[in-house]
Amino acid sequence: MATPYTYSNSSVFNELFKPILEFYPQSARQYDCSKLTDLDFLEMGVMRCLSDSRTGRDFLQRHADNGRKEVSVDHFFHSLKSERRLANVSSINPLLSAPVAAACPDPFKDISELSNFEIYAGDGHYHQAACHDKKQPTAKGTMRSVPVGHFFMLNMRTHHLRHLAFAHHDNAPWRKSEHDMHALKRAEIDDLRDHAPKGRQVIIVWDKAGIDFHFTAECQAAPRALLHQPGEIQHGTRCHWKQSLRFQ
Asked: Phi and psi for 204 in degrees, rounded to 5?
């Protein structure tokens, strides 16, 4: 018998978590863990994002104090390393796209010129390095902890947020963080397009860290466009995105 999930006593949270409960049966790599079920793990992931706890231990204490699942520090952090749980979470996020789209009005629906475009905003995000994060050498020969970096893309029509890529440091461990352009260039085209159907055009909005003339030219040659904010580029030149892009 599967370990049952205990609903929260907060009606607001239950409403927020409802889509995950509905789509979990369709998710990949499910497993009935008696100590920490998949649904409890998913709930803790949502609550960790919403909480103001500065450390994982603080979060676990508050989570238990609020009447939710009590999990040992050791088991929780081992769960975070689980490839199966990562695959399970990754499979659920795309399933949430449809209910999010249905719940959020499209701010671009009345702009006919954009009717054939999917529009995304992207950016990188880093937390301060934790004491248990991997250490790598610096340019000065010392060792430092490397924070885990992530790159995200937000669907501007539906406000559905998805994970694009982890930051890589292996090729240049002396860098404090991977540059956004490195992540964009190694991403698959379908991932950048969010698997938009053939014939559907895509606009990706990025900040000045997303400026690269050659990459922008490649974007112009494909059914997508990369927009960036005005700013200093290379050799002191200045470029405005309206002048640097053609919509295909």
From this structure: -115, 120
> 242: pLDDT confidence band, cut at 50, 70 and 90?
very low
CB of 206 within 8 A of CB of 181? no
CB atoms inside a 10 Å sphere around CB 54: 9
Q: What are phi and psi of 230, to 5 degrees?
A: -60, 145
Give the position of tokens 């959020």: 104
57 & 179 share domain: no
pLDDT score of 230: 47
Please determine, for residue 27, whether its predicted confidence score (pLDDT) is greater than 90. Answer: yes
The angle formed by the CA atoms of residues 93, 190 and 119, to the nearest 5 degrees, is 75
C-alpha 4: how far from chain center: 29
Same domain, 211 and 113: yes
Please enumerate in sequence order all residues whose Cβ is within 8 A of that of 191, keeping only pairs 6 or more positions apart, or say none: 164, 165
**212 and 163 together in one domain:** yes
- Answer whether residue 3 is part of any domain: no
| 80 and 31 in a common domain | yes
- Taking the model in full, what pTM does it have? 0.72
Instruction: Identify whether residues 131 and 151 lie together within a single domain.
Output: yes
Q: How many CB atoms lie within 10 A of CB 16?
A: 14
Q: Each residue of 109-120: pLDDT tens digit?
A: 999 999 999 999
What is the domain range of residue 148? 105-244
